[in-house]
Design a protein that fits this description.
Keywords: Membrane, Signal, Transmembrane, Transmembrane helix. With about 675 residues, the chain is mostly beta strands. It contains 7 helices and 43 strands. It folds into 4 domains: about 190 residues, Hepatocyte Growth Factor (3-Layer(bba) Sandwich), CATH 3.50.4; about 80 residues, Hepatocyte Growth Factor; about 130 residues; about 140 residues, Immunoglobulin-like (Sandwich). A hairpin with a 2-residue loop joins β40 and β41.
Length: about 675
């Protein structure tokens, strides 16, 4: 107890916390906790898989059951004579060291050893408050991912500080070269680039930043790798959970250290969190246990899935250039693609190839492997099960409006994941397929689209569907309406059967292997309107749509199903196609109706005068009005110019007027004029 009395206040509180709590939380590092670290932050560095000689083991804490890391950690921090401690997970005991032991480069690391070494450090800078801030692997390097090289770095500890505090990039790891005094910072680590961590010379040490959050917590579509009936011995904290999903959530939200794996006991409900995983240790450490499930957080793979009518497209997005390989478990050459150093890589599967099969519920299922190396499989590769679902929906189709529905993709929890593919644990991606593109056409016998026809012309009503679509289609509720929507005629009822086969027949599926529908009819029109507008409702079904019997004939329509109270709301999108039909006078108010446009989808202006319908394109009508106005202005200008010209000419032709002289009531001309007249008279004599 004397030792306890001499403790500082923070040490006493830590010791009291250990005694009072059965599940002791790890205390976060405190500033100036040691006299040697008065200007920095006291924390720890972790090394996994090293052996402490028996003669150097000074007992610190042991337990016959439970997790001991928190107790060992807090006891060492509360003792000024503990510079490091070592945990043996096999014996569930820890031992302290008065002086750091594994500080040189000659230490041998064995990933299959169930042990961890924690060394006390005093670091400068803005360091996070986790129980340990770095993890170290002597004699290893992350090859080929050097983003920043800093020279003249005096120690490994200084290299750790540079990685922890660098603002130029998210430094996830660093390689320290002792002989060169170089610190190489990288955005990657052994989990994001598992194939790049290699054994190197003894002068190199790999340092991993344990403060930065895993990539998987920053993105949405990230998974857990789950292994049933296995347990992991390196447990660092224990808590209670109802199920595996709750246990995984506890790991993701734990803050005392970066949790990388869990072991869930299905009998007791205990959830064991660990700061280690298969990337840190060896798969040899996994032990078989019937009632336990092991799960580890894998490197986040941003994978999405698009489901189309004839294929599924898997899209991989990486935060660094990808040089690996995507391929199907069918191992066919046409079902693989290699990365070319880009951030986006995609692979397309046909629905009838690359090992894709149709499940009992009608969905299409395929397998995909993401391999980090272009030639070989390594630990850290991922496998996905791709599932495309094609729901049956009702549509009102139109020619102008596309009705594609965006794919709804999500990643399914891998707790119920299927068996491994080629030895790799599987995640599942589900996506809902887009509806196929559909076009409504009115064509003649040669297959040409028509817009202006005459009564009795042979026409074909055609619903075109992508030939490679996974959907079949049938039609119902086909209605013909007049251009003013004042009159309508039902051609196909809600079952898809024709109301009057003499006017409009059954729709038949084409015999060319496509899923399009076609029906022959003769051009008709309404009495007072030349425009006939067709509108049809379509419903899609997976693969083929069975026809319905209508008066002894097959028609590709079927009875509308009753809508369940909780059924999903059906989405309708309007599609229509119109034609102009001309013919003789059919009534007292009808006159000849001439199609003024050859383009069926133009906007039209309808002008009525005593029953006459004149269909003129809007652009032409506007041009005629503007031309007429300009012509009137030109006439006015011409008239004004003519009047002005005549006035000017008349003024120029008149002689200047002579002044006159008045004598009483008689007017006399000027003398000059009188003398002129006398001269003319004399000359005639």
């Amino acid at each position: 107890m004397a030792a306890v009395v001499k403790m500082r206040l923070s040490d006493f509180l830590c010791f009291w916390f250990i005694i009072q709590s059965s599940n002791c939380q790890i205390l976060v590092p405190l500033k100036a906790a040691l006299t040697e670290c008065s200007t920095g932050i006291e924390t720890f560095e972790k090394v996994t898989g090293i052996e402490l000689p028996p003669e150097e083991r000074i007992p610190l804490y042991s337990s016959t059951s439970g997790v001991i890391l928190a107790d060992c950690y807090n006891r060492c921090r509360s003792s000024s004579s503990c510079s490091a401690f070592w945990i043996d997970y096999t014996s569930n005991a820890c031992f302290r060291l008065a002086n750091p032991k594994f500080t040189d480069n000659n230490v041998e690391v064995d990933a299959s050893k169930p042990s961890s070494y924690f060394e006390r450090l005093c670091l400068q800078g803005d360091i996070c408050s986790k129980a340990w801030v770095t993890e170290r692997i002597p004699g290893h390097e992350l090859a080929g991912h050097d983003d920043v090289i800093i020279r003249s770095v005096g120690s490994r500890k200084r290299c750790s500080e540079l990685c922890l505090t660098d603002k130029r990039l998210p430094c996830r790891s660093a390689d320290y070269w002792e002989s060169r005094k170089e610190c190489r910072l990288s955005r990657e680590n052994r989990r994001s680039q598992p194939g790049s961590l290699v054994k190197s010379t003894k002068e190199v040490e790999y340092i991993e930043n344990a403060c930065i959050e895993p990539i998987s917590t920053k993105q949405r579509d990230c998974e857990w790798e789950v292994m049933h009936r296995f347990e992991f011995p390196l447990s660092d904290f224990a808590t209670k959970s109802e199920n595996l999903e709750e246990c995984q959530k506890a790991c993701e939200t734990y803050t005392a250290f970066t949790c990388r794996s869990v072991t869930f006991d299905m009998v007791t409900g205990l959830c064991f969190l660990s700061g280690a995983d298969m990337s840190t240790t060896s798969p040899k450490l996994l032990k078989s246990h019937e009632n336990k499930i092991y799960a580890q957080r894998v490197a986040c793979i941003d994978m999405s899935l698009d489901c189309n009518g004839d294929n599924m497209v898997a899209k991989l997005k990486t935060h660094s250039p990808f040089y690996g390989k995507l391929y199907s478990s069918a191992l066919l050459p046409e079902c693989e693609v290699f990365g070319h150093g880009k951030l986006f890589t995609s692979l397309e599967y046909p629905l009838n190839g690359c090992g894709v099969y149709k499940d009992a519920d009608g969905s299409f299922v395929g397998n995909l492997i993401v391999q980090q190396h272009p030639l070989i499989q390594k630990r850290g590769d991922a496998a996905f099960r791709l599932v495309c679902t094609f729901p049956e929906t009702n549509r009102t189709v139109t020619q102008k409006i596309a009705f594609e529905k965006e794919s709804e993709s999500r990643l399914v929890e891998a707790g119920s994941a299927p068996a491994p593919i080629l030895g790799i644990a599987v995640s599942v991606i589900n996506a809902t397929a887009k509806s196929p593109a559909v076009t409504l056409r009115i064509i003649d016998r040669n297959g040409n689209d028509v817009s202006g026809v005459t009564l009795g012309d042979e026409l074909y009503f055609k619903v075109e569907v992508e030939s490679t679509s996974a959907y079949g289609v049938f039609a119902r509720d086909l209605i013909a309406r007049s251009g003013t929507n004042e009159e309508e005629l039902i051609l196909l009822d809600t079952r898809g059967c024709p109301e009057d086969p003499a006017i409009f027949p059954h729709l038949k599926k084409l015999t060319d292997g496509s899923k399009s529908l076609k029906g022959r009819f003769e051009a008709f029109k309404f009495t007072n309107d030349a425009v006939v507008r067709f509108q049809v409702y379509l419903q899609f079904c997976r693969s083929e749509c069975p026809p319905i019997r209508c008066d002894g004939e097959n028609s590709h329509g079927r009875r509308r199903r009753a809508m369940a109270p909780n059924a999903e709301k059906v989405e309708f999108i309007e599609l229509q196609k119109e034609i102009i039909v001309t013919g003789p006078i059919n009534g007292p108010k009808s006159k000849m109706q001439l199609p003024m446009s050859t383009k069926g989808d133009d906007e039209r202006i309808h002008q009525k005068d005593n029953g006459m319908v004149i269909c003129t394109p809007k652009n032409l009508m506007m041009a005629m009005i503007i031309g007429f106005c300009l012509f009137q202005v030109a006439i006015v200008l011409c008239c004004a110019a003519c009047i002005c010209y005549k006035k000017d000419k008349k003024g120029m032709s008149l002689p200047p007027s002579e002044p006159t002289y008045r004598s009483s009531d008689v007017y006399y001309a000027r003398p000059s004029l009188i003398s002129t007249l006398q001269s003319i008279r004399n000359s005639r004599r």
